[in-house]
Amino acid sequence: MLDIDGCLTLGGAAIPGAAETITALVGRGITCVIATNNSTRTRSGVAEMLSDLLDMTIPPEWVVTSAMAAVGLLEARHGPVLVVGEVGVREAITDAGLGLTDDFEAARSVVIGLDRSFDFDRLTRAAAAVRRGAFLVASNDDATFPAPGGVLPGAGAIVAAVEAASGSLAVVAGKPHPPMLAAVSARLRPGVTWMVGDRPETDVAFARAAGWRAVLVLTGIARSAAEVPDDLKPDVILPSIADLPGLLA
């Protein structure tokens, strides 16, 4: 189970050694699942992006996004959906057969993901829909995501704004929550599973909740072992994903 932002990529570039690591895993017959809380891209878009950055073929079937997990919480009665998010959320919802709306009075649910065009009008509409009884779902609640030189605001910052304005708490779908576990479980083979990621509160917590081994890499949110809370210590800490094949050996 591989995270993307801060693990395989950072700031639109591949982490050195990421492609070689995936090649080594596949060569050992290990099933790879790419599980990301980033909801901005579609499943096929994530696979295409990674294929380009890593210069190798990443099948869409490997990819599970938090948008896919969020849709797993929706039923027919939750449509139409008011989206605060980008194409990854919108396409996941329409693929599930649910309609979209910008009308807060018509919305039966609100689904939030990272939205880099988020503004006051969108906040107003989403909060108004929730106050009228719309089901509030967050693709994830990561407050930030890693970027070269620091961090940027994540979907969790937007979720917090809508929660504050509406007076309601969102049901969260992404890592480390149960909807994401349900979304990835169907793609796992029997046997030992390792979760490899850069964020203790999502990736390590996800592994702990599922009974998997947790491997933390120091190329994203966590940059040193000293930053890891005592209750979220992983089984292994590696400088980078590039060091994973050596661990397996």
Summarize the helices and strands and which ones pair or pack:
Blueprint: E1 9-10, E2 13-14, H1 18-27, E3 34-36, H2 43-54, E4 63-65, H3 66-71, E5 81-84, H4 87-95, E6 109-112, H5 120-131, E7 135-138, E8 144-147, E9 150-153, H6 155-166, E10 171-172, H7 178-185, E11 194-197, H8 200-210, E12 213-217, E13 236-238, H9 244-248
Parallel strand pairs: 3-4, 5-6, 6-7, 7-10, 11-12, 12-13
Antiparallel strand pairs: 1-2, 8-9
Helix pairs in contact: 5-6
Please give the order of strands in the largest beta sheet.
5-6-7-10
CATH class of the largest domain: Alpha Beta
Straight-line distance between termini: 18 Å
What is the radius of gyration? 18 Å
Count all strands and give the number.
13
Structural class estimated from helices and strands: alpha/beta
Tally the helices: what do you get?
Answer: 9
| Proportion of beta-strand residues | 15-25%
In the CATH hierarchy, the architecture of the largest domain is 3-Layer(aba) Sandwich
What profile does the largest beta sheet have? 4 strands, parallel
What integer is the average pLDDT?
96
- Give the oligomeric state: single chain
**What name does the CATH topology of the largest domain carry?**
Rossmann fold
Low-confidence stretches: none
What string gives the helices and strands in order? EEHEHEHEHEHEEEHEHEHEEH
Helical coverage, percent range: 25-40%
The CATH superfamily of the largest domain is: HAD superfamily/HAD-like
> What's the overall geometry?
globular
Please indicate the count of domains. 2
